Amino acid sequence: MKTKEVVQNIKEKLPDSIISEVEFLGEFTLQVAKENLIKVLSFLKQLPDPGYEVLMDLTAVDYLEPTKRTKIVYWLHNPINFERLRIIMFISRDEVIPSVTILWAGANWYERELFDMFGIHFEGHPDLKRILMPDDWVGHPMLRDYSLTEVPVEFKHGVKPKVPSEIINPSRSTKNLIQIGANGKRNK
């Protein structure tokens, strides 16, 4: 079943579950409400033929305007048709959303990363704790209003401590770039 048919099928079987739909370059993005998330994802995963069995990625985007809110993005893949489908949902920063680990065990680390970096809480997650930042770290570094400090960060897994200016340094990060012109040749 092609993605266009799947979207139509969702509209028929789960009316009012899709807030909006966008098709761009043959790929669909469906916006759903929090209360319909598990219902829609379960439907997609359990489609015959097969369904969207693979959760390729789970990520988030933080917005400051018009209000502080976060977009959650679920990237699904149908391994037989080689088609992708994106499911998005907007939440306020303090909202708790359902964990999808009941559908995809691999969502465990994705959700832990979103908790660690964005402060998103997943109801029903088996072990929601930090995965990258130290356990006693205050705040969530991927929020747009998170202020950078010069406090050395000792990441988990033995990575050498660094301060933000060592990580984000425009002169250091661009000095080794090779500029390629419109003709495809290296600029001197």
Topology, please?
Blueprint: H1 3-13, E1 18-24, E2 27-32, H2 37-45, E3 54-63, E4 69-78, E5 83-92, E6 96-98, H3 107-118, E7 121-123, H4 164-167, H5 170-174
Parallel strand pairs: 2-5, 6-7
Antiparallel strand pairs: 1-2, 3-4, 4-5
Q: Which percent bin holds the helix content? A: 10-25%
What is the total number of structural domains? Answer: 1
What structural category arises from helix and sheet content? alpha/beta
CATH superfamily: NADH:ubiquinone oxidoreductase Nqo5 subunit
- Helices and strands, in N-to-C order? HEEHEEEEHEHH
Number of helices: 5
Number of strands: 7
Compute the average pLDDT. 86
Which CATH architecture? 2-Layer Sandwich
Strand order of the largest sheet: 1-2-5-4-3
For the biggest sheet, the summary is: 5 strands, mixed
CATH topology: Beta Polymerase, domain 2
The low-pLDDT segments are: 172-177
CATH class: Alpha Beta
Strand content: 25-35%
Compute the CA-based radius of gyration.
Answer: 20 Å
The N- to C-terminal Cα distance equals 52 Å
